[in-house]
Structure formats: C-alpha cells, structure tokens
Amino acid sequence: MTLKVYLSGEIHTDWREQIIAGCKGLDVSFDAPVTDHDASDDCGVAILGAEDQKYWHDHKGAMVNAIRTRKGITDADVVVVRFGEKYKQWNAAFDAGFAAALGKSLIVVHGAEHQHPLKEVDAAALAVTEDPAKVAEILRYVLTGKLPA
Fold first, then answer.
1. Looking at the record's lineage, which domain of life comes first (predicted)?
2. pLDDT tens digits along 46-94
3. Domains in the chain, ordered, with CATH?
C-alpha cells in the first residue's frame, strides 16, 4: 500500500521534517503548501500585480495558494493538519474542513491549549495528537500493521 500525505498548517516549526524523518523507509509521499511565509503572503501581487489595499493583496495570495492546496488535499489519502502556538491558523481549520468534506482521513496535531477551540475539528479527525512523532507512528502502523517498539 502506498500513502499520499498532505501536511497542512503551521509553518514556523520543523514538524513536517519530523514526520517525514519518522516515515523513512515507508511507501509514503508528502506534499505541503508553500512554507516560505513571505512567498506565500506575496505570491498574488508578485505574479498578478500590486494592490493598494491589504485586503486585495491578501485575497490574491489566498487564491493563488488555494490552487496548490486544493490539489494537494484532493489527491491525498491522508491529510495532517497542525495548529501551532504562535499564530492562529485559520487557513488550517479551513483545510481540515475541506479534507473532512472530501472524506479524507484526517489527523490533527495541536497542543492542549487548543483542545476546546478545536473540538469540532478534532471530532472530524480519525486521530488527534500533540506530537508529530505520533503521526509517523500512525502512518507506520497503517502501512505495516506493526505497533511501535
């Protein structure tokens, strides 16, 4: 069995690299949004032209980024969404809802401080954890049927 995994959410820590390293040797491929914060914020105006109002600046960027995000989530077997501590990832909540609406297997990663505000997102997930290493263990179990040592 091969798994295609989309890693959505927080871009300020190395959680993606932790999961990818933990899946070494497994038949799994990973996709993700653009994680260069400046490129992600400015892609719309850099490609389509400047905007005087911040709303339209952000709107253009969100639309261009959505092309990649929709493709990644639509093609994925499993969608992992991480909510970090530093910023509110409203886009990550949207990605989780989109994945759930498509019937994708959803794994959510966040700290204890987000248990209550993300209770509906967590209810749509097949697994919820605080630790990216646990995501790798879940994927390893799904692919091999083996429990962690």
1. Bacteria
2. 999 999 999 999 999 999 999 999 999 999 999 999 999 877 788 999 9
3. 3-34+74-144 (3.40.50.2300)
Per 3-state DSSP, what percentage of the chain is helix, strand, and coil (rounded to 5)? 50, 15, 35
Which helix (H) or strand (E) segment is 44 a member of? helix 37-48
The residue assigned the tokens 């429990």 is: 147
Query: Are the C-beta atoms of 28 and 19 separated by less than 8 Å?
Result: no
d(CA 109, CA 112): 10
Global confidence as pTM: 0.95
Strand ranges of the sheet holding 127-129, from the earlier edge strand across to the other edge: 28-31, 3-9, 78-82, 105-109, 127-129
Any residues with CB less than 8 A from the CB of 128 and at least 6 apart, and which? 107, 108, 109, 110, 122
